[in-house]
Amino acid sequence: MVHLRMLTKLMCFCGAGLLTFTCNSFAIANLPVEASFFGTVGLAKSSSDEILFRSRVALPTGAGENWSFENDSKIGTQLSYAPSDTFSATIQALAELNSDDTYSPSIEWAYLTYRPRENLKFRLGRTVFPTFTASDYSNVDFAFLPVRMPHDVYSLVPFPGLDGIDVIFNTDAGKTYLTIQALAGQRDFNIYNNGIERTAYELKDSYGLRFSWRSGEWSGGAGYLQGTMRVDAPDVLALADALSSVAGTYPEFGVLADEISNVGKLIIRSVDVHYTGYRFSFSAEYVQRRWNINMNVSDTDAYYILGGYNFGKWTPYAFYSDSQNKSELPLSGYPAAGPLAPLTATLTSLFGPIATDGSTRCIGLRYDILENLAIKTQFERIEPGGSLYLQKNGQPVPQHINLYSVALSFVY
Amino acid sequence: MLKRLPLLVILSLLTVCSFAAYSEKIVVIVNNQNKADSLSSDLIGDIYLGRTSRFPSGEPVKPLDLPKGMAITHDFYAKVVKKTPAQLRAHWSRLVFTGKGRPPKRLSDESAVKSMVSERSDSIGYMYEKTADDAVKIIFDAH
């Protein structure tokens, strides 16, 4: 049964890829456009069936003790039409498992570019803001060393991209190159949460700024993004009402109820540094997410350190990542028996898994089969934390899981 | 004497090979009107990786590339740009799929590169030293 489900998904996946490829071929035959493709066929399994590891918060399933095809597999295509150096249009479609359990392709990027000067660019439409270094190419797995960028950090941006306008300005100071990118936009998207399953989110009035620099083999940057986030979560609001109704007899629940809201401000700050030599490469990023909804259970500080050494076609690598939950209100110590026990159970099942610390130790090996095709395999020892893990039937979260991944990634 | 023959043959071959390697030296060329007389390998690498789009004089620069799979292309990127083919492809993937840049235009051979560089002041190209002549200016040679 599991194999049948996987086969069906594989067929949907290939169908979506074929559809985008066919569309591209048709377009190329008739228009002066450039087409590019990227994709990954990935498998992952963990040592535990009690929780499922997900590479993205939109995934409705994840990797347990059986090999999971869904976590990392994807295919994307990009069409660019550039009639001149000043104007161009780009569209990028991606087929991967969605929160509704289908592989229907989604439009990840669709924008018009106006470039009045060689170092200044305006883009109007749907773009992905580089909140972190690799945020805007995190679907192009071939472009980075590990199977996926460290999830303790990269899962903290819950939305895929923004509809709006951005501006990119490049300049240099001697041998140091500087880039400033600013963006304003909004986006509706879905996340698959523990307990409340598929949830609609709305990000409005958001703007971001990223400053990055490069000097020889060193580079780095800092980013800031803020916006107003609205969550369509009736279960959460119902819990707030229920907690309020018992505030008279149990004031602690009243305090929690006042802190539960489905609208709040999201702020993400990040800073990063990288060294990219011919052989040795190194990256480190530090991130703060502040999200003042639901008792701040999503407030998190996280970082990772990633290094690799290239031996021609072989590149062994390792990373360590860590996320610390920064919510201040306790989620434990409430009545576990009596009439208030169901409320305590609902509270902990909704927010308990999110308000946890996590860390990951990873070792891996990348082999570049061709200049545009690589196979990567990695082992991760994970202390599960944050909203990335799906609990199965309310079973207790294990302290550690082992995650095994192998992925074949390409660009064309 | 006969015992030393293999040694002499090896030495002769090494000498011939070293002369061959010398004649296969890669040079970087610009238009004769270009104000620059020399460029560092770091700057050439930055130009070919899309990190800068200007010469030190502030004039725009458009790099020209040779086909993938040619020995000269591989050697140029290994020695001057310091990237393996996969590292180079990963680099351009990061730019192409985020709309931040496009790889240099590829021409069919060294003669086409020389021809375009001699005609356009914003061009920069690379070729074997033996192909370069007075129509273009050499601003870097890879030892």
UniProtKB/TrEMBL annotation, chain A:
Residues 1-27 form the signal peptide. Gene3D superfamilies: Porin. Keywords: Signal. It comes from the Bacteria. This is Porin.
Automatic annotation (TrEMBL), chain B:
Residues 1-20 form the signal peptide. It comes from the Bacteria. Keywords: Signal. SUPFAM superfamilies: Periplasmic binding protein-like II (SSF53850). The keyword Signal applies. Gene3D superfamilies: Periplasmic binding protein-like II. This is Phosphate ABC transporter substrate-binding protein.
